[in-house]
Structures are given as C-alpha cells and as structure tokens.
Amino acid sequence: MADGPARTNLLPLALHVPEPRSRPGDPVDFSDVVIPAAGSMARPDEAISPHDMRDAAFGLVRVLDEEHQAVGPWDPRLPAETLLKILRTMALTRAFDERLYRAQRQGKTSFYMKCTGEEATSVSAAAAMQGDDMVFPSYRQQGILMWRGYPLVEMVNQIYSNAGDKLKGRQLPIMYSVPELSFFTISGNLTTQYPQAVGWAMASAIKGDTRIASCWCGEGSTAEGDFHSAMTFASVYNAPVILNVVNNQWAISSFSGFAGAERTTFAARALGYGIAGLRVDGNDALAVYAATRWAAERARANKGATLIEHFTYRAEGHSTSDDPSAYRSAQESAEWPLGDPIHRLKQHCIGLGIWDEERHAAMDLELAEMVKQATKEAEKNGVLGHGMHQPFETMFEDVFEELPWHLQEQMAQALEERAAKWPK
Amino acid sequence: MAEVIEAASDTRTMNMIEAINSALDVMMERDDNVVIMGEDVGYFGGVFRCTAGLQKKYGKTRVFDTPISECGIVGVAVGMGAYGLRPVPEIQFADYIYPGIDQLISEAARLRYRSAGEYIAPITVRSPFGGGIFGGQTHSQSPESLFTHVAGLKTVIPSTPYDAKGLLISAIEDNDPVIFFEPKRIYNGPFSGYYDRPVEPWSKHAASAVPAGHYRIPLGKANIVREGEGLTILAYGTMVHVALAVVEANNVDAEVIDLRTLLPLDIETIEASVKKTGRCLIVHEATRTSGFGAELSALVQERCFYHLEAPVERVTGFDTPYPHSLEWAYFPGPIRIGRAIAKIMKD
C-alpha cells in the first residue's frame, strides 16, 4: 500500500508515539498531575457495587495532608505502635536497599533492585493484611518480607547465592521464596503471578478457607496478557484477591504512557471487568493501609476482588543494571509532588507527639548497623563469584521430584568435568 | 513402578473418551484436591465429552467452565497447585495451548526448581492433539516437541483406552506438571491410516477392556506392542496403530514400540530393541524439523551406532501447516511408512 496512490482529499493518518514529560537536562514540570486534597475522597462501604464507585478509579485516596495530618474518611486511625512499626519497617527496607546496592557495586553479587520511594506500597499493604494471607509479589516488594519478619541474613544469603542460600543459588538476587511467611516464589517474568494469585484465591474459596491472596505488578506490565487474564478470572469467579498495580511511572526507560497512562488511570482498568478500582497515593503509608484494608475486608466478605493503583514514583534506577540519567531528568525524583513515604509518615508521627528527630536518627543508625551485621553474617557463607557454594549435584535436583535417567547422565558428566577442571 | 491394579475391579469396554472420563472420575472420588477446569468442560462435559457427568457428580466448584483464556487457565492452575490443589485443566485443542505456554514453560515447569522444592505445580494439562479429523491447521497440530524441549515438564501420549486411563491416573498423581496429549483421531477407535475404510470401534480391540477402578501405568515406561527381529519402529499415539497396520499388511518382522511417555523416555526399551534388530524407523505425525523424531534419532545413533545396519529413518508430517483439503496428503500414512520400511530393509 505504501506505493499506492495517495487519496489527497483525506487527512493523512498520524501515529502517536508517547513521549514523557522530560528527558535528561529538561526542566521538570509535574503541574499536569492532578492531586486532590487529602481527605477529599469519599470512603464507600466495602460491599458497594463497583459501578457505584467509578470515581474512586480516577481520584486519589489520600490521608496525610500537606501538614502531615491524617484527615478524612480513609484515616485508618492506627494506634501509635502500628504507626511506628510501619515507619520502622519502611526505614529498615530503605537501609537494606542502600547497603545491598553497595554490596553489588562492591562485587559481592550480580544484581540488586531497590524500592526507594515505594516502601509504603509493600510495607503498609502487608500491614493491612493478615500474616497468613498469601502474597504473590513482583520483584520490588521486599517490604513485605521486612514486615513479616523474615531474617535479614536469609535475604542476604539469597542475594549472595552463597552456601546459606536455601534456594541453592538458582535464582537471580532478590527473587525470594518464603512459604512459611505465605510469600510466593518470585518470577523474573512479568505479571505471571497475577493469574496465579487469582488461582490461589479461587482455591481458598473452593476450600471454604478464610485466607485471601494479594499480588503486585508494575504499571508497565499491566500490558501483559496475564494481567487481563487474571482480571477476567477474578471478575468471573468473584475471587478473594487484591490486585495491586504499583504505578511508579517508569518501566526501565519506558514511561507509563507506554502502558496507556496518557488515556486513563490504571485503576480504571478495573471498570471494564466490573471489579472495584481504587487509586491511592502510594507515598502515603496511611492511604495505602486504608485502601488495602478496605479491599481485604471486601474480599473476606465474598464481595470480590479490588484493583488498587498505587500512584508513586521510582526514585532510583530500575536495577543495578540501569542508569536512569540516560533517559529521564535527574530532577524528577526530587520534585515528585507526592513526596517521600518515609519522610511523610515520620513527620506525621512527630506531629502526633509519638516520635522526634532524635529518635528517628538513632533508629536509622540502629537499622544500618542491623543490616550491616546481617551482611557480615551472610558473608561467612560466601559471596557470589568467590568459589562455588553449591555442590554440582544441586544443579540437577528439583527439575523433577525424581531424577530421570537423562539428568543422571548429565549429572555424572558435570561431576567428571568438575574433576577435570578442579582436581582437588 | 510396575503396572498396578490396586483394587480388584470389574472390567468394562470403553473407548478412549470413556477411559479418560473414568480416570478423572476415579481421581476426583479419591482426592478432594483434584479439580477440573477448562472451556466447556462443566455442564456440557467438554466438546469431546471427556468430562461428561463430572460436574453433576462432584459439583460446580470442582468441575467448572472457564473464560476462553489459556493463559488464565494455566496460570490459575499454577496458583491452585501452590495452594495445595491438584488441578487437571483441559485445553480444548492442543492448537490453542500457545497463549498458555509462558505459564507452562516459565512458571509450572520451573516452580520446583526456582523455589528449591518449596513450591510445586502438580498439574496435568489435558489436550486433544493430532490430525485426521479434517480439523485444518488450527485443530490438527502435534506440538509435543515444544514441551519435551522444556526442562521440568513431562509429556505423555496414550494410544489405547487402557493406557489412557492408567497413564492419566499416574499423571494426576504425579507431583510434577504433565502435558497429557490425547490423540483425538483415535478417541472412538484405532486407526489403520486408511482414511477411506470404515472406522473400527474400540470394542473390537483388546485394549478397550478397562478396569472400572483405580490403576496406574507408570510414566516413563514404553510398551512393546509387537515383537519382532528385523526392525524397530518407534511411535506414539495414533501412529502406533498406523505403523502396526502397515507392518501386518506387509508381513514385516518389526518390533513396534509405543513410547507412551516422551519425557521421561524409556531409553532402555528402545536401546535393547534397536540393538536386537539393527534397524530403526521413527514415526510421528508432527512436523519433521526439530520434531521429537530428531531427538529419538540422535539417541539411537549415540547408543546403538555399532549395531545399526541401516541409517535411522523418520516418517513424519511435512514441514507445513496442517492443510485442510489435503489432509491425507499430509498425513504420514501407509505409503510413506511402507516406503521407509522398504528403504531400511533393503540394506
């Protein structure tokens, strides 16, 4: 057709290719981001029909106002103890990220992924669920493990793929698996966990269990077919599941426009499926808690699934393999209009008189030391690339429950190669 | 693991559909964690009737219809397996399995490995496959080698009602994900390859005698369906019957081996047979290049080279999409098999 005659009486068609607000060196302007006042969104009953809460998919659940006061109907009115535990867990997550990021730079492992700026989307969400509710995370929800009390040294062992790594050094760093904390094995393939979480929730419903499931993906991977398959199944079977979309604006170098953000919100994806959709200030730990609790209560009451869009910002690179200064303005992070989740909750607690700067500074030092001790402890089990930490046989285990003949033969070959390469 | 018939049970005459239905019934009865799902499998009982009556017997939460989403069907099954259920999803035609393939390859097949055994995917994906029913390119494919190529998946293909039930029970009880391809051309009767002859019902075949109760045929164990000295023929599914018919018609002294499980493969039986006969023909309906026959040929060459008296031959479908009107020109039928046998036996 390219060579065919042009019909000159018609408008030529034009392809739209999305372009982000700013590229490196550009001034940053977030003035187009609509931020409703904290407390302004109504909180519907958990049993509401999704059709009667369409506005919730386009607004923003916010609890903490500009003065860091908790306001409005979504205020979860948490006791001081819970507020401080959320604050501490978010700070621990950040301290852990800082140190393990540096460990990668020091050559102790191959890869790391921080969740800086997004801590509330996992820590507060976990806080609002029961400890035995099943979570199907993506790769940036380490805050769930922090909240559920997973030993830091186990996490570092996994990151170092060392002799203490219970996953036998098979998984890329941070791809944890912790069934005892109802934490599913993380996949590097995007959004595959979505239909799995729906399936788990369906199984829980089939069995008349009381536990619900929750899953997370980024806004970029809502474009995957798995996301839409999961939404369809969740809708059809009224599955007791919470579907979290962490909209951190960036999928490596592709801004959210490449997942459809120029046209509508991600929470609005719920509407076509007849699922409840909530859009939440993801940097407001109290809003995330309140929205998650709302969705959890709804699921427990057999009222179905909720899609929660956490509107947030990926303050750092995608991973240690990424350099965001190559594709976005360095100022974006500092100028993100919804601030930082740890700073905001800290200021809120100070305002309540249950916290102060001195205690916060002391806590940060304590947490940094705690993480340091965990890494030291894990290093006793080795670091990646310095020696082989797993017996060669482990490479062939767990492909199947039992070792078939062809893997037995290949294992023998691997052991022979080992003997030839490393005679001792 | 030998063939086990655990409880003395009466034997009934079944076609392959009834045998598969019986296996599902037996397993649902024995294990509350077995659930069945797929397109049209519930109230209707499946487009090939393999799940007929099961929803009525076991209820809608254990046998249910699904959205038309193979990605969703497999992904949901993986999640159910993680919960502790033992799902048996049906993919209506093997030709439709591709939207679910990432959930099979990247998830089901890898859960055990990536979690060091903490999570498993004890799911059995049933799917009718193969041609011979004028299904055209979207209802005739044989994609088994896509799955045998994946570490962590087992692939099973029965050729008789008796085998179908025993193998399906083993597959459901297996703690690893199993792809269970059902040769739809022989659901209602074995097939000689002569499409213009009347269909012979299963009731005239000895393997239609199927125990009503629970029994297993172990995965990874082939079946020597005909003993012989001059040539080994490796086949599975529909092609077992076609190969047998050719051998009988031409009075060839062939040993015909029904592989039953492609992975794990019964290499011992293959090796012993080829070392005995010195000749090997591989027959499958799937396309030729990178088909499972290539793997079989390589294995035979590696293990039996000095016993071979002729090159290993493959008879397969052509490397084209499965055509509709030219189905019987595509199908690796008696002429193609007969010529290959003649070629091998000539040396």
TrEMBL record, chain A:
EC number: 1.2.4.4
Domain of life of the organism encoding this protein: Bacteria
Keywords of the record: Oxidoreductase, Thiamine pyrophosphate
Reactions mediated catalytically: N(6)-[(R)-lipoyl]-L-lysyl-[protein] + 3-methyl-2-oxobutanoate + H(+) = N(6)-[(R)-S(8)-2-methylpropanoyldihydrolipoyl]-L-lysyl-[protein] + CO2
Residue ranges constituting the Dehydrogenase E1 component domain according to the UniProt record: 88-382
The UniProt record lists the keyword Transport: no
GO BP term (any one): branched-chain amino acid catabolic process
Domain 2-oxoisovalerate dehydrogenase E1 alpha subunit N-terminal: 12-50
Protein name: 2-oxoisovalerate dehydrogenase subunit alpha
Biological source species: Blastomonas natatoria
From TrEMBL, chain B:
Any GO BP annotation: response to nutrient
Keyword Oxidoreductase: yes
Ranges where the Transketolase-like pyrimidine-binding domain occurs: 14-189
Coiled coil: none
Protein name (record): 3-methyl-2-oxobutanoate dehydrogenase (2-methylpropanoyl-transferring)
Organism classification: Bacteria, Pseudomonadati, Pseudomonadota, Alphaproteobacteria, Sphingomonadales
Organism field: Blastomonas natatoria
Alphabetically ordered keywords of this record: Oxidoreductase
Gene3D superfamilies according to UniProt: 3.40.50.920, 3.40.50.970
Cofactor: thiamine diphosphate
EC number: 1.2.4.4
Keyword Oxidoreductase appears in the UniProt entry: yes
Gene Ontology MF term list: branched-chain 2-oxo acid dehydrogenase activity
